[in-house]
Amino acid sequence: MLESICFRVLRLSLQMSILLLLSFLGNKWLTRRFAAQARCFLWMAFSIRLLIPASLSFALPSWGAEIQKATEAALPSAAQMGQAEAPVFVDVLPMGSTAGFAAPAEISYGQISAGEGIALLWLIGAVCFLLAHVGIHVFHMRFLRAHSEIVCGGEQQDLLEQIREELHVRRNLPVWICGKVDSPMLTGLFHPTLILPRTEFSQEQRMFIFRHELAHYKRRDLWTKWVFLLAQSVHWFNPLVHILAKKANLDLENACDDTVLKGKDRLYRKAYGTVLLDVLTNQTHAVPLSTHFIGRKEEMIGRFRNMINTAPKKKGYGFLCCVLVGMVLLTSTLYPAPAQAVSAGASSQPKATPEEIAETRALLTECLKGSMFEGYVPYQELPLSQENYDRCEKAEQAYRSLLLKADARSIAQEYRKNPSFLAVYGQGEKDIQSGLFCCQANADIPEGNRKMHFIWLDFSDVSNLQVMDVGTIYPGRGNDVDERVQEITRQWHSIEEAATEFNIDLSQYEKAFSMMDPAIIENQADNLGWSLQEQLKRMRGYQFEQFHHRQMTAFIKKDHTEGVMIHMDRSGTYVHYFEVPTIAERNQRKTLESQFPIFRSECKA
């Protein structure tokens, strides 16, 4: 999970760097055209976006489907990614027949991968950067408190109260007099304090100082500075983010000056600038996370020029909205709408001739002969009640629509390109809530090699189809169907026992055993098995010449945020919890290991 967050941050930092560069290059134009407060809003929007390492996903309009068709063939298949075969979960093996682990009960992890190392380095850097600044701030505060005295009463306190009432500041800010500071400052996030140097200020100077610092408090600039610091901490490796914080702090001072000087004439502005110049002349160092101003000569000149300039500037609401839209689009994932979504409602089932229908019907009878499903026929051929007929029709359409969402390279394409149908058993008013979804596989192969795919459906709740992938059956092998069902039943009982042992509530999960499961299709998780297997290879104690991803029993949580994989053998029961990133996030990941990262493992002998 840490690796996933790290690479989201890196990607976001790179994307935002484009906007930051454009903003810095146009800084003179921004300063000349827009008020300082508008620029503060801009820097704040950038900082907040930098603190959210997630991207939105937008589907392009219908013409995107054509792009998707053109690019689908260019997408790397599992074999091209270094795998021996396509990642399908069709065959269900008995749990006792595969000794996958020869390790003791405790899993130990080997050396960390390069991605994990980068993620760890990023986290250490972010924490150290933040703690260093917070530590320096706390040290300064304790040092200043030890060398300060609190002002109680007197003309200075009366003046502060008067200005506080004028500015409608309800909070009574304590005032410290400290001989260790060079200039006035406001500091303290939850308990803001006004600290003054041990200098004899005139009444006019005190008035301007109090107005300036109370304006900072009223504007909540201390909170804003913390947002900039958090953005710097998360993106400590990006110099552009540090430049952003520096420019933002400068514009906070300019915006505060604008607040104090709003509606004032040139004489008032000149007097304010004179007092500010006297203060800046004595200031030699700054306390982190406080209101202060120490900058280069050019920045100080720009600040005084801003105070003298009385020309109206734009508030920049329209410009800010344009920037926000550009920022969202730049840091979001745009992808073509799936072709099946564009043509929703259109039937994708190929037209079958009467001869093909008869041939498929005969093949179905031969494949199911001697099995527990003998006698199952397409529901249209049965004298069902209208209620049962409607239930079967709705289930068939619901599952066929679901298969349209499956990856075109998966086995689901067999159900899309060949005639498929729902077969059930029953007559008249008998309640029918389950059946077999069937299709003839590879209809173009010689007759002697014909076979059928079978998927058992529980459609007692059509909105929540329960699927068991029976697999591929050849004519005259009806007993194979019964063996598959028995194996799956034994497997399920073992899974339930393991889930109880590990306190896993399976009612909160959906099965992800095969490519036919709704959870796999809805999440486009066709690489789930390969991703987990590649990660488990990095763990000690596994004999992978005896272990295959088809033996994994996985579940995906109903909120599609995470999943769990359960595996049992003679040496113990093993449970691995993995993250389920969004489809857009997975599309940007380069390795199988990063598709569904494991974040916790448990085992019991």
UniProtKB/TrEMBL annotation:
The protein's matches in Pfam families, at most eight in alphabetical order, are given as:
Peptidase_M56
Sorted alphabetically, the keyword list is: Membrane, Transmembrane, Transmembrane helix
In terms of InterPro entries, this protein maps to: Beta-lactam_resp_regulator (IPR052173), Peptidase_M56 (IPR008756)
Q: Which residue intervals define the domain Peptidase M56 in the entry?
A: 9-304
Which organism encodes this protein? Anaeromassilibacillus senegalensis
Provide the transmembrane region boundaries. 12-30, 42-60, 118-139, 317-337
Source organism's superkingdom? Bacteria
Q: What is this protein called?
A: M56 family metallopeptidase
